[in-house]
Design goal:
The complex is a heterodimer of chains A (117) and B (485). Chain A has 117 residues and is mostly helical. Helix content of chain A is 66%, strand content 0%. Chain B has one domain. The chains are: A mainly alpha (117), B mainly alpha (485).
């Protein structure tokens, strides 16, 4: 009970916050519905038509870059949990890790992979 | 949690760190100071490799499990690390003229070679199946890209895609095998697995056997043993020749590095169960590899089937499951690195602007037009066929004597017969070079000094290892004394 109680509070807070946001949008947000806004949201592509259409290959590049950096950032979480135990050693190790990650980002940037056109 | 308990040893993974850093430097140089010709990146790569080789040299004699028993630094892994780095160095030197001719002279090419080498080292140093898998993937993913780095050529893309699809499939087999082995033994640590397997009352043995069988498929694919070899000829033919050369020695050596550690060392108590399987694998690989090679007219396909056959010889030594067998694996892979890189090296220094000489008949008349090159090719062919006094003979001699000492006389006889078959197709190349009239002009590439250096190193090593093998054989057998547990 003692350990679960903060978790319960967290759940309550998260649920409450999300609910409050939705409710606020519903009650005080302006509503100007157009035909485009009423379409199902499909990341910018036309929702009606054959399912096997060709996507621009740039979408895949962006998706891949996102996944790479997203997954690598996940490694920061375990470190955050035992940050105090690892001390300076962990800080240096993580700095190396982030440096390599940043080097990859610089490389991607310089190569123009982040340019859409 | 105590950090000291993990036993962090940056020196132990020194070669790995140096190669990773070199790869980052190569990428950074090309990003910030781009230039038309990129041969300087190759020299940076070679310099990194030499420093890493020095770091490897200093590791000789060390023996400890580091990083929470994920990595093991012993003579076995150090010997393999040496083989990998030498292979990468020679490949890079061979690449220097070739890559600019083929339009693949990119920073990514050199960086991926280095990252692949990092994966190989991780496989040889892995004391935990997870580390081995991580290395396997680092190596494989780099190779998938390298095979397709010549984007304008359909054959290169085809090789990359075939290798990727089949490789991903075999990785899944391997991973499933690892999972089942974990389920059966309760550990991923190779030493704990040995202990669990050695226990007499062992209820979950079928689970373990299935797991071990699946891992065998994964390794069998990586080192190209029959029946997991079908990708080899297509991928070797389609990939740029320098990448093929790298793949045929590095990936194979790395595959065997992990294969031998997992099977011959960690799963040694289980050897009555897997010996027969490996026996079949060895016979099928030697016979199919050598017989299929006879029919080839393309030199890269011929060398692909020859590399399959050589994987078979190495498996023969594994079947022997003795100290002599395992040390002959190490020695043979060292020898194979030089002779096979040499053979591919000759192929890749022939040919003009983005046009390669790949039909065996195109080698006609090479004996007169380029005597030194033809002599080198003849030497590598003799070595691959196992003719004394080349290193190939000594390597095969140790493998087959290990098989005989282990009581596998039949296997040794089949192996010797299979390598007799191989003499036919290796000698055909020599005959074509010296005794056949060329149909047309053979295109000769402008001479590349670094490639010449690489070929001289490979040829010298092929001869030296054949004439003075004892220090290397001693080193190979000392690699085993120090293997932990």
């Amino acid at each position: 009970m003692d350990t679960a109680f903060p978790l319960f509070l967290m759940l309550l807070f998260a649920g409450g916050l999300a609910g409050a946001m939705l409710a606020m949008g519903e009650f005080i947000g302006p509503k100007r519905l157009t035909s485009i806004k009423l379409e199902p949201f499909e990341c910018g592509s036309t929702p009606i038509g054959p399912g096997r259409q060709r996507f621009n290959v740039k979408f895949y590049l962006v998706a891949m870059l996102f996944i790479i950096f997203d997954v690598e950032v996940v490694f920061l979480y375990p470190w955050a949990v035992i940050f105090r135990d690892l001390g300076v050693f962990g800080l240096v190790e993580m700095a190396c890790f982030i440096f390599i990650l940043a080097a990859a980002l610089v490389y991607v940037w310089k190569r123009g992979a982040l340019e859409w056109e | 949690m105590n950090v000291a308990a993990i036993n962090i040893s940056l020196g132990g993974i020194g070669p790995l760190l140096i190669l990773s850093a070199t790869a980052l430097v190569v990428l950074a140089i090309d990003c910030f100071w781009p230039s038309e010709r990129r041969s300087h990146l190759a020299y940076v790569t070679v310099a990194g490799c030499l420093v890493a080789l020095g770091a490897t040299w200093r590791l000789w004699g060390a023996q400890e499990a580091v990083f929470g028993r994920m990595i093991i630094v012993d003579n076995y892994s150090t010997f393999f690390t040496g083989i990998f780095i030498v292979g990468t160095t020679i490949t890079t030197l061979l690449s220097i003229g070739y890559t600019s001719r083929m339009g693949i002279d990119r920073a990514e090419y050199y960086a991926l070679l280095l990252f692949a080498t990092v994966g190989m080292i991780m496989m040889a140093q892995g004391l935990n199946l997870i580390t081995i898998f991580l290395g396997l993937e680092t190596l494989s993913i780099s190779l998938y890209i390298l095979a397709g780095i010549q984007r304008q050529r359909a054959a290169s893309i085809e090789a990359s895609l075939k290798y990727f699809l089949l490789g991903a499939f075999s990785s899944a087999f391997f991973l499933y095998g690892v999972a089942l082995t974990y389920g059966a033994t309760g550990s991923l640590d190779l030493e704990h697995i040995t202990r669990a397997v050695g226990e007499t009352t062992f209820a979950s043995k079928p689970l373990l056997l299935i797991g071990v069988g699946l891992m065998l498929i994964g390794f069998g694919f990586k080192v190209a043993t029959v029946p997991f070899h079908v990708w080899t000829p297509d991928v070797y033919e389609g990939a740029p020749t320098s990448v093929t050369a790298f793949m045929s020695v590095g990936a194979k050596a790395a595959g065997f590095g992990a294969f031998v550690r997992v099977f011959s060392i960690s799963l040694q108590p289980l050897s009555p169960d897997w010996t027969h399987l490996l026996w079949l694998l060895a016979v099928a690989t030697m016979v199919v590899g050598n017989v299929m090679a006879i029919a080839q007219t393309n030199i890269k396909r011929l060398l692909a089937y020859s590399s399959i056959a050589h994987a078979g010889y190495v498996v023969v030594a594994m079947v022997a499951a003795s100290a002599l067998g395992t040390s002959s694996v190490l020695f043979y892979l060292l020898v194979y690195t030089f002779m096979n890189l040499g053979a591919f090296g000759v192929v890749l220094v022939l040919g003009r602007q983005d046009e390669e000489v790949l039909a065996i008949d195109d080698f006609a008349g090479l004996g007169r037009r380029a005597p030194a090159l033809a002599a080198a090719m003849a030497l590598f062919m003799f070595a691959l066929a196992g003719i004394p006094p080349t290193a190939g003979f000594v390597g095969k001699f140790y493998i087959f004597s290990a098989a005989v000492q282990g009581g596998f006389v039949g296997l040794a006889v089949i192996g010797v017969l299979a390598s007799l078959v191989s003499v036919y197709y290796y000698f055909r190349v020599v005959v074509v070079m010296y005794f056949m009239e060329p149909a047309g002009e053979i295109p000769l590439a402008p001479r590349s000094a670094p490639a010449t250096v690489a070929l001289v190193i490979a040829a010298a090593a092929t001869l030296a290892l054949g004439l003075f093998p004892s220090p290397f054989i001693t080193a190979a057998s000392r690699s085993l004394v120090a293997v932990l547990f």
